[in-house]
Amino acid sequence: MRWRSVGAVAVVAVFLPPLLMLVAGSLRRPGLPPPPGPQLLPDPMSAEGYTQAVDLGGLVRAGVNSVVVAAVAVPVSVLVAALAGFALTQLPRRLTAVVVVASLGALMAPATALLVPRFALFRTLGLTDTLAPLVAPALLATSPLYPLVYYLAFRALPADLYDACRLEDLSPLRTWWRVAMPLVRPVTAAIAALTFVLTWSNFLDPLVYVYDRDLFTLPLALRSLATLDPTNFPVFLAGAVLTTVPPLAVFVVAQRRFLHQYRES
């Protein structure tokens, strides 16, 4: 418990100062030059940067697009990853080993190496300049890591539990949904949080596939906001604060789920 507290303090000490500087910079009056040094309490303080960020950057529309993409991608990714991870526990050991090695190989492949074939595929299907390419990775669980995490979680469950389900004549699908999934809820919360953050902060895919400004997600809207006036830092930082709040809220909810599960166990 002591080392856990020390670790938590170390993490806070690393990540809290940049967040404080981000918020402090967003509260400076737009148009003022940057301060000569760190300034946690701007003088004068102003929320005008947030108003300009929303108006000039189109953050409302971009936020709606990001929410739509995340609302589809997160549950689909979790569902596919959970099904794939459970299916791995039902395969013969040798075949499971082959699939795990293939998944690790796919995990090590750089994402940029797939940009050209993916772009050609989506253009052939007529899906460029839509939100479909941003959601499509969820059909493959977003990352090869997530099915492997579910596989380890399902494999850690007692083998007698699966034997009892077979004696009760439960199908593999019902065993997965009614027995296995409720026992790995912390894993589901973790993968959902990671998928949300990865989807929410995805900049490269929207940059490649989306051209219509009305379809911009928040990372693209922030880029456009930064190019309007590169010296007006408070406006850009205000947009960055608004974009950062949802992932932080998701992590807080996921952490509460972890702590609740820990107390129950």
TrEMBL record:
SUPFAM superfamilies per record: MetI-like
Membrane-traversing stretches: 67-88, 95-119, 131-153, 183-203, 233-254
Domain of life per record: Bacteria
Localization: Cell membrane
Residue stretches making up the ABC transmembrane type-1 domain: 63-254
GO CC terms: plasma membrane
A biological process term (GO) from this entry: transmembrane transport
Bilayer disposition of the protein: Multi-pass membrane protein
Keyword hit for Transport: yes
The keyword Zinc belongs to this UniProt entry's keyword annotation: no
Keywords, sorted A to Z: Cell membrane, Membrane, Transmembrane, Transmembrane helix, Transport
InterPro entries according to UniProt: MetI-like, MetI-like_sf
Principal location: membrane
Family: Belongs to the binding-protein-dependent transport system permease family.
Protein name per UniProt: ABC transmembrane type-1 domain-containing protein
